[in-house]
Amino acid sequence: MQFHDLRELDNNDVIKADVCIIGSGPAGLSIAGEYANTGKSVWVIESGGRGIDAPTQKLYQYENVGAQRCLNQDLIRIRAYGGTSALWSGRVAPFREIDFAKRDWVDYSGWPITREDLNPYLKRAGEILGLGPNQYDDSLWSQFKMEKPRPCFNEENLRSEFWQFSRSKQIKKQPTRFAEDFNPQPSANLNILLYANVTHINTDDEGRQIESVSVTTLEGVQAMIKSTLVVVCCGGVENARLLLASNKQHSRGLGNHNDMVGRFFMDHPYCELGEFSVAHSRELVDRFSHFWLDDDSGRHVYLHGLTLGKEIQEKEQLLNCAVYLVQDADIDSSWLTAKRLVMALKARKFNMDVAKDAGRLLLGLDKILDGFFRRYFKNRPPILKSNRIALGCNVEQLPDHNSRITLSDKLDAIGMPLARIDWKISERERDTVNRMIEIINLELPAIGLPAMKPVKWLDNEKWRDNFFDVAHHMGSTRMSSDPRQGVVDENCKVYDVKGLYIAGGSVFPTAGTANPTLMIVSMALRLADHLKSLPRVQAMPCAKSASTENLV
Fold it and tell me: Does residue 361 surpass a pLDDT of 60?
């Protein structure tokens, strides 16, 4: 694998590539890795360098005209080699079967592929992300060498949902960081072009065959990557922005014949449903906190939560919804105090803080013994003292034609129009969350667990202000078997443009509730297999015909 810096190349250089991949995040590098040592010349185009720098990050500035987006978008998206894997938490899960299904009560639902189509790729993606077994439901209890907890919930209402956490092969106690963990060997055919900002995807005069990609540095050094096969992997906002801005042949942008690029923009609206009494929540925390699974590769960490059952979603026409405990640990809890004290003694540090920790340790010796038993006999993390225990919620977002990304009149430092984000949250999300609160407070006490004190803001006029975006950007170049309702087909090829493909959460037709990175990598591997099976791309004839619509 070879790194190149566009700032050090001659102005207006031309680079020839068999495959051009725009973006070096989890999707882009997962696809690139499948081409390692294949003899194909692959160039991965990255806007930033090997680390984060402020001028490049500013290219992520955007104009917001919809629901408030509480997170600073130029901080939660990383424009550097490895992409946003540089800061993600590592939590993953796959979408459930119902997330792929056509649901009569959810407009625009239904994927042209099934969960079964993705199953082989989920396992391969798990290897890339350092995951344990590809299991996320009650089948995991046997892996933990535990009986399924009883009494059980009414599974028509609530079902177990597990998330697991990615693990880096290179950095201890970190999730997979693609910048450090991606290193396929041997791979002399893979090239990474840094500090190269894509300004336009170029086609033939008819606008139907990809020919090249124009790039520039912030300082103005320009180049062109000549390739008839381009994969756009820039994330849920930037994928749409780049297609819309590539408008020299088509004034509305590439793949936008039906005005679908940028539409159906989704996130996972996050909120807290309520709080539990800290004094009466040990059994709750024991059932729904973290679990460890050890194998030959090391320790895998899981979080247990709940999701709405398929039956109640169908019966009451609800969206999908998943919940999990959110705990604020007391920094002076006994187990953390013991860890601090051991570290201080190893470092031969003796001061007043160490003396205070020793006193706290003696007073909390029973909790230390409990934590020791859980850690070394039950293979579970200790239950830490909490200042607060709440129930966090990721709710599926209703696909909305008017929740969209367009181009702003404002320009960034390289002359590209900013993304204009009009994110919409519907009443259906609020209705689903309200019903989840009712179900939680029905099901928990029924099996002897404490009830939750629910939030009160859901009935206020400004209820939308209490939902937050979590940077799970999806849907803006959605997949569909009907070009009138999507941007890409079931193989992620852009309709009406030969040689142009898209990878990432932007192709998801619906959002489910799961953190999307496992799905993104799985879909990227599936796309890579498809691309590698294609015959060598030939130039498309100028004559138009219906039969050319879905060519490579």
Answer: no
